[in-house]
């Protein structure tokens, strides 16, 4: 598993916690970032509301990916369908289409517990 860029993400539709190694030589996983997506607001037009929701989701996913450059393995966990949407987004993003992704479901946990959980996946 040398030279593997491994990351873990706990996410729901508005929050993400990114776990990874500071650099390729680091032995231990650490908290890299917390990302908060913006809330969508109601709109008078359903089409405009859908477009806004997609734009907000895409912006949220892009922000998460800024913390996972050259990822080779990503383990996604969290509640709801956010991980599935994010996996599809990764598959449609040229830089990440060959990244190995796995997912599981878990409730929100402390940063320390999440680091242990992700380390156990790799």
Structural commentary:
It is a single chain. It contains three helices and five strands; from the N terminus they run E-E-E-H-E-H-E-H. It is α/β, with parallel strands linked by helices. It has one domain: Nucleotidyltransferase, domain 5, CATH 3.30.420. It has a five-stranded mixed beta sheet, sandwiched between helices. It is globular and about 50 Å long. The mean pLDDT is 90.
Q: What is the approximate shape? A: globular
- Rg calc: 15 Å
Number of helices: 3
Order of H and E elements: EEEHEHEH
- Number of folding domains? 1
Strand content: 25-35%
Judged by helices, strands and strand pairing, the structural class is: alpha/beta
Strand order within the widest beta sheet: 3-2-1-4-5
Unreliably modeled segments: none
Report on the biggest sheet. Answer: 5 strands, mixed
């Amino acid at each position: 598993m040398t030279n593997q860029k491994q990351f873990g993400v706990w996410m729901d539709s508005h929050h993400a916690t990114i776990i990874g190694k500071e650099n390729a030589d680091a032995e231990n996983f650490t908290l890299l970032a917390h990302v908060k997506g913006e809330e969508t607001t109601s709109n008078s037009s359903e089409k405009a509301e859908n477009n806004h929701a997609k734009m907000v989701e895409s912006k949220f996913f892009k922000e998460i990916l800024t913390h996972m450059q050259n990822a080779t393995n990503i383990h996604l966990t969290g509640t709801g369908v956010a991980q599935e949407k994010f996996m599809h987004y990764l598959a449609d993003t040229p830089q990440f289409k060959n990244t190995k992704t796995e997912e599981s479901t878990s409730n929100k946990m402390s940063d320390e517990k999440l680091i242990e959980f992700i380390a156990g996946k790799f």
